[in-house]
Amino acid sequence: MSRKLVLVLVIAFAALAAVLWGLTFFWQGMGVEVTGLGWGAYIAGGVFTLALSAGLFMLSFHSAKHGYDDIDRPDAPED
């Protein structure tokens, strides 16, 4: 992985951590108490969402970079 990709992933996970940190103040203001299982679900959901979106973006960029999306590919099957 390139340094730029690692930096983008670190920023994305830092943003996720900031959102989760901000949610604690929001929920405390409303008088809601979240259990450890609830926090685990929120963190797992955020991590899996970031991982899935990063993976799909990397696949689409890889496909475009290597010409898999080109209409006039030389190895494309004939109809």
Helix content: over 70%
Low-confidence stretches: none
The shape, in one word, is elongated
User: Strand share of the residues?
Assistant: under 5%
User: Could you tell me how far the N terminus lies from the C terminus, measured between alpha carbons in angstroms?
Assistant: 38 Å
Describe the overall structure.
By secondary structure, this protein is mainly alpha-helical. Helices cover 73% and strands 0% of the residues. The protein is built from 2 helices and no strands. It has helices at residues 3-30, 36-65.
Keywords, please?
mainly alpha; 79 residues; single chain; 2 helices
Give me the secondary-structure topology.
Layout: H1 3-30, H2 36-65
Helix pairs in contact: 1-2
Short description:
The protein is mainly alpha-helical and 79 residues long.
